[in-house]
């Protein structure tokens, strides 16, 4: 072991300070603090991080040795101080665990108890965070036999103080000849890794990845080394080259990737001042800066740094797959392998894995680079690709050039993959993992590892894209038919299902290139269709889907679906049932693949409603749109039939309905109209506000809770109501505000609980909500305090200036206020208060929360129930909303059009 330089640890000065003071604690702390400062300064100077973590371990060795010497251990004593785990490897990050084993030759610990306790107390007093165990050699054997973690830690051990022969005895007792033979150890480590990956959704691409534990992280590299060490004995990364597990170029890539992650981890520890391995939003910009990513624009800096991170961990994951496949073949296969079974002249199957028939397959027949993935999809019983064949694939990626991409054999094979009954997503993911997909489709290569710095898109663009295709495939699973009933039905009815997979592959491919990604992606999709000789109709459908993949979700979430004109316009846009079916299935998959929290029950209900109403319009014929009067008549007729059968006097119904206005019957179903009407007629006029609640649908995975309020109209009704609901911890997803001619308000809110679920059949919760709303609305002058909940940690990093657009509706006498702002607790209540201060009435509202931002649309009128006509008033309203909601004090003004 090389000596530490004096700047890092000056032994003479340390000994002098020990001699001068009665307590050693000050001298130890000073030495530790000095070493921290020196190493951190060297890190900021971009010194070799490998040397830094090794120097920190060597320094810690010296400190522990000095501490150990202060206690009585006879030269013949059967006791030793060992470094184990990561520290045992001689690697130590700023706040990594210092794992120690005090190893005894016998089970008798009493003779050392006082010294051991004094030693550990000293370590605590000088500020070292150590994890320690005290065991005899025999106890090490017992513990290691029973615990995978213990045997793993003991495999990586060094003697810091005491006789080396104790460690050698321990190594002998715990050797693979006595416990955890390499096969059992490998299987246990494989299961451990799979469980760990599952904690991170089996993806390298998380918004806040763990550089140690996430797929492709440092733990994956270490797992490789643990397995190799158990099987071959002492082994390091470079030694795996000699064993044939790695090529020299692969070793260089793995080593450089490890160094990059070490830099990230070192920076995280240094910034957090603790053992922090999560690359949180709190640290991403600062880590990027420490690693030399200085773009000026913080968002761009983070995105560039994180793309580098994702590409590094993807490279590690790829090599990890390759090496683990080697382990499968080397460790698990005992005796002679079974004879190979030919698939064709280029490929054969051995022990369930596909392999080439000879080493020159890809060089002689380059189309085999695509063919292998098609064969795996056509033979889902195959477990994977042999290690040598994976390496050959990697080595021959250079053959994928423009000529390769135009070759009819390759284009035909690629399309054939999307027509397979099984394995489409699995093999596209393999193609991406092995670096084939991004070479065959250079436009896909641009989005590999590309992140978007927001909470809405929780995966990189390539991971989201493949996740979308996975969701499309999952719609065919019988067990998901209840959660996605319509999508599951439609996916089997699409005339050419391969087209929706291709549209999914291209829907976001234009991101990161500036401009409208839907337009850019549509151009790429058209070029793809032409290059792959698809029929004109097929190409046209793919292009249309890519260009318009956001339209259906935008319409469902931002438009009034009770308005016949909205439905007619959307029906005219999609044009026919086939386009509607494809678009619905793609949209549902896209929402679920973007962020699993987005697909809540209310969003599902909106999507189904838009699909169903549009299908009716198409069946009726675009030339025969339902007029407002006809829809009102149909709704009233069905509701009246229900009421009369229930014993309600039709004259009472007609009298009430004459006061409600047309919009009420347009915005509610016949069932809701009957429910409301019956309750209103039975509600005494002096009984205060009427508050009704029910689920919007009986479907388990769709809908929300409808809250209907009938009460004398008050100008502050909306503001008071949303403030009260905020206090009840309810999220409002839709608001329909109406006033009858008798000056009664008929307000309907669709709400979910704060975590996204519906209230459901919970009598106690329903009673609490109803009573709280009644009490609040009975005393509107006692305006509820707008809640001041703590802003969640992640949301704090997305403090952009709100955007407000104000314009008058072309078809209805209302003014539309569109708001995009950072999501914050109580935001809707604050907006309601602003409208109240401006003497505005809210007639309708569409509420959408997308990750870290809200996109809300309000339809308002002035005190005279007219749209706003004063540009100066609109400008003040806009600026007030921005100022009240903005995290910055001087946001730039946004667009207004009257």
Automatic annotation (TrEMBL):
Activation and inhibition: Uridylyltransferase (UTase) activity is inhibited by glutamine, while glutamine activates uridylyl-removing (UR) activity.
E.C. designation(s): 2.7.7.59, 3.1.4.-
Single Gene Ontology MF annotation: phosphoric diester hydrolase activity
Every HD domain range: 461-583
Keywords associated with the record: Hydrolase, Magnesium, Multifunctional enzyme, Nucleotidyltransferase, Repeat, Transferase
Cross-referenced Pfam families: ACT, GlnD_UR_UTase, HD, NTP_transf_2
SUPFAM superfamilies named in the record: ACT-like, HD-domain/PDEase-like, Nucleotidyltransferase, Nucleotidyltransferase substrate binding subunit/domain
All copies of domain ACT, residue ranges: 706-789, 816-892
One of the protein's GO biological processes: regulation of nitrogen utilization
Catalytic activity: [protein-PII]-L-tyrosine + UTP = [protein-PII]-uridylyl-L-tyrosine + diphosphate; [protein-PII]-uridylyl-L-tyrosine + H2O = [protein-PII]-L-tyrosine + UMP + H(+); guanosine 3',5'-bis(diphosphate) + H2O = GDP + diphosphate + H(+)
Cross-referenced InterPro entries: ACT-like_dom_sf (IPR045865), ACT_dom (IPR002912), HD/PDEase_dom (IPR003607), HD_domain (IPR006674), NT_sf (IPR043519), PII_UdlTrfase/GS_AdlTrfase (IPR013546), Polymerase_NTP_transf_dom (IPR002934), UTase/UR (IPR010043)
Domain notes: Has four distinct domains: an N-terminal nucleotidyltransferase (NT) domain responsible for UTase activity, a central HD domain that encodes UR activity, and two C-terminal ACT domains that seem to have a role in glutamine sensing.
The protein's name: Bifunctional uridylyltransferase/uridylyl-removing enzyme
Source species: Phytopseudomonas punonensis
Gene: glnD
């Amino acid at each position: 072991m090389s000596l530490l330089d004096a700047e890092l640890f000056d032994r003479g000065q340390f000994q002098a300070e020990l001699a001068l003071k009665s307590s050693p604690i000050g001298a130890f702390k000073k030495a530790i603090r000095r070493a921290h400062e020196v190493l951190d300064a060297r890190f900021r100077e971009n010194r070799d991080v490998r040397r830094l973590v090794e120097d920190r371990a060597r320094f810690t060795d010296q400190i522990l040795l000095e501490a150990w010497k202060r206690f009585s251990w006879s030269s013949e004593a059967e006791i030793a101080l060992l470094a184990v785990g990561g520290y045992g490897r001689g690697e130590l990050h700023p706040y990594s665990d210092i794992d120690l084993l005090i190893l005894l030759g016998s089970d008798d610990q009493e003779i050392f108890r006082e010294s051991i306790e004094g030693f550990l107390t000293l370590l605590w007093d000088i500020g070292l965070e150590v994890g320690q165990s005290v065991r005899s050699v025999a106890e090490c054997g017992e513990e290691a036999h029973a615990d995978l973690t213990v045997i793993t830690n003991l495999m990586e051990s060094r003697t810091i103080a005491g006789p080396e022969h104790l460690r050698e005895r321990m190594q002998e007792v715990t050797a693979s000849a006595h416990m955890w033979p390499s096969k059992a150890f490998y299987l246990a480590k494989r299961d451990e890794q799979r469980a760990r990956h599952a904690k991170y959704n089996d993806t390298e691409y998380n918004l806040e990845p763990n550089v140690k534990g996430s797929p492709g992280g440092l733990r994956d590299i270490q797992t490789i080394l643990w397995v190799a060490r158990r099987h071959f004995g002492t082994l390091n990364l470079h030694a795996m080259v000699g064993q044939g597990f790695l090529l020299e170029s692969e070793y260089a890539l793995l080593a450089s990737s490890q160094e990059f992650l070490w830099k990230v981890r070192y920076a995280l520890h240094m910034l957090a001042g603790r053992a922090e391995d999560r690359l949180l939003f709190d640290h991403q910009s600062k880590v990027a800066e420490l690693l030399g990513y200085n773009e000026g624009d913080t968002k761009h800096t983070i995105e560039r740094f994180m793309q580098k991170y994702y590409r590094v961990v993807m490279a590690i994951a790829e090599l990890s797959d390759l090496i683990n496949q080697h382990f499968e073949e080397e460790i698990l296969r005992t005796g002679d392998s079974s004879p190979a079974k030919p698939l064709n002249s280029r490929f054969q199957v051995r022990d369930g894995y596909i392999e080439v028939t000879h080493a020159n397959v890809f060089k002689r027949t380059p189309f085999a680079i695509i063919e292998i993935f098609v064969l795996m999809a056509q033979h889902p019983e195959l477990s994977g690709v042999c290690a040598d064949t994976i390496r050959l694939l990697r080595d021959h990626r250079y053959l994928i050039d423009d000529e390769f991409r135009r070759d009819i054999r390759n284009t035909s094979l690629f399309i054939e993959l999307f027509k397979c009954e099984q394995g489409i997503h699995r093999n596209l993911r393999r193609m991406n993992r092995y670096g084939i997909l991004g070479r065959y489709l250079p436009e896909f290569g641009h989005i590999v590892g590309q992140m978007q710095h927001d909470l809405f898109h929780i995966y990189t663009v390539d991971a989201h894209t493949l996740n979308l295709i996975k969701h499309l495939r999952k719609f065919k699973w019988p067990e998901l038919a209840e959660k996605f009933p319509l999508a599951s039905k439609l996916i089997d009815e699409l005339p050419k299902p391969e087209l929706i997979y291709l549209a999914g592959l291209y829907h976001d491919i234009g991101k990161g290139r500036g401009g409208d990604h839907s337009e850019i992606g549509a151009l790429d999709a058209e070029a793809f269709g032409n290059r792959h000789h698809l029929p004109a109709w097929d190409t046209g459908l793919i292009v249309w889907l890519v260009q318009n993949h956001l339209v259906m979700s935008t319409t469902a979430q931002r438009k009034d679906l009770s308005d016949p004109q909205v439905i007619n316009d959307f029906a005219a846009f999609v044009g026919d049932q086939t386009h509607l079916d494809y678009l619905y299935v793609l949209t549902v998959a896209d929402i679920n693949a973007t962020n699993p929290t987005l697909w809540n029950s209310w969003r599902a209900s909106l999507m189904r409603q838009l699909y169903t109403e549009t299908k009716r319009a198409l069946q009726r014929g675009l030339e025969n749109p339902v007029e407002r009067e006809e829809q009102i008549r149909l709704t009233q007729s069905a509701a009246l039939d229900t009421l009369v059968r229930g014993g309600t006097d039709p004259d009472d119904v007609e009298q009430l309905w004459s006061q409600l206005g047309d919009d009420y019957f347009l915005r509610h179903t016949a069932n809701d109209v009957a429910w409301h009407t019956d309750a209103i007629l039975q509600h005494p006029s002096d009984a205060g506000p009427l508050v009704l609640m029910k689920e919007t649908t009986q479907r388990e995975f769709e809908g929300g809770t409808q809250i209907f309020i009938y009460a004398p109209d008050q100008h502050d009704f909306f503001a008071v109501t949303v403030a009260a609901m905020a206090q009840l911890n309810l999220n409002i997803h839709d608001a329909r505000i109406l006033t009858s001619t008798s000056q009664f308000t008929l307000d309907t809110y669709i709400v979910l609980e704060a975590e996204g679920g519906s209230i459901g059949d919970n009598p106690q919760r329903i009673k609490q909500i109803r009573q709280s709303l009644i009490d609040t609305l009975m005393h509107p002058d006692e305006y509820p305090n707008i809640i001041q909940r703590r802003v969640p940690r992640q949301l704090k990093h997305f403090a952009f200036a709100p955007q407000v657009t104000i314009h008058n509706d072309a078809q209805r006498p209302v003014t539309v206020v569109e708001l995009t702002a950072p999501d914050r607790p109580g935001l809707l209540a604050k907006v309601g208060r602003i409208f109240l201060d401006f003497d505005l009435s809210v007639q309708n509202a569409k509420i959408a929360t997308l990750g870290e931002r809200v996109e809300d649309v309000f339809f308002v009128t002035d005190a005279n129930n007219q749209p706003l006509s004063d540009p100066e008033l609109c400008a003040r309203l806009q600026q007030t909303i921005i100022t009240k909601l903005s995290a910055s004090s001087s946001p730039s003004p946004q667009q207004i059009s009257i």
